[in-house]
Amino acid sequence: MLRWQVGAFTITSVVESEAPTSPRFLFADLDKKAVLGIAERKPWLQPNFVSPEGFLLQKIHALVIDGGGRRIIVDTCIGNDKERHNPGWANLQGPFLDDLAAAGYPAETIDTVICTHLHVDHVGWNTKLVDGRWFPTFPNARYLFVKPEFEHWQVAPDINGDETFADSVAPIHEAGLADLVSTSHEVCPGIHYEPTPGHTPGHVSLVIESEGQRAVITGDMIHTPLQIAAPEHSSMFDTDPDMARHTRKAFLDRWSDDATLIIGTHFGSPTAGTLTADGDGAYTLHC
Ligand SMILES: [Zn+2]
């Protein structure tokens, strides 16, 4: 299990799935050959983030932030029992909640749920199926939804045509556990949102600061470290690919201080590192 210490905060990765992903799943303009070409120019991508065949090494995980009397879960993966068009994501029966408890965090001990955005792989465990109905998985938590993000997906069609909002977001609102917050919301002392729009309209990244140390959880405006080595490539799931590209470049420029721990929402293990600028518009993630 991956775990990082940022001052007084412990950040733990709880993995739902980890698998090589075809670049075509994410990028219209990149195939495996093109990915291997980028990896040849930027060899740090291998072996952790690009396979010898040119697959992207990705994971879906949640991050638990424990400290300052708080237990916060960030991005709740795909979830079990959900009807999904992607066959790899449909009706999962995984041990995520057991793994979360084994990491030291039974669901009822979580006090805050954060979703960097409301895509299908970031909201799934918000709810669980009980007697045919969706109930909050974290009954003692406040769920923080970014207001413009919530309002967008309340009416916009899901990226895969799934009922993601209806089964994983609306039941939280109906249970009275949702707080609609701004894109620069302060969660608690030391933890705040930063707006990183483009992947989705109200997308945020999460900054964690304590005792002179800092980490940032990316969300999906960087899906894969490949987009650190080649920031110009936006994913097919971006609501606004041009804005996502602009946001990504500004993000990389800002945090390439070789000190801030960048924790990826989908980066394969080891999943986190510090950034430096290469000087050619690209960046390197040092794990
Ligand atoms: Zn995602």
What does this structure look like?
The chain has 9 helices and 16 strands. The chain has one domain: Metallo-beta-lactamase, Chain A. The mean pLDDT is 98. 22% of the residues lie in helices and 30% in strands. The longest helix has 15 residues, at 241-255. By secondary structure, it is α+β, with helices and mostly antiparallel strands.
Q: Keywords, please?
A:
287 residues; alpha+beta; globular; binds zinc ion
Layout of helices and strands, plus pairs?
Layout: E1 3-6, E2 9-21, H1 23-26, H2 32-41, E3 56-67, E4 70-74, H3 96-102, E5 112-114, H4 120-123, E6 127-130, E7 133-136, E8 142-146, H5 147-155, H6 164-168, H7 170-174, E9 178-181, E10 186-188, E11 191-195, E12 204-210, E13 213-217, H8 226-229, H9 241-255, E14 261-263, E15 272-277, E16 283-286
Parallel strand pairs: 4-5, 5-8, 8-9, 13-14
Antiparallel strand pairs: 1-2, 2-3, 3-4, 6-7, 10-11, 11-12, 12-13, 14-15, 15-16
Zinc ion binds at residues 119, 121-122, 220, 266.
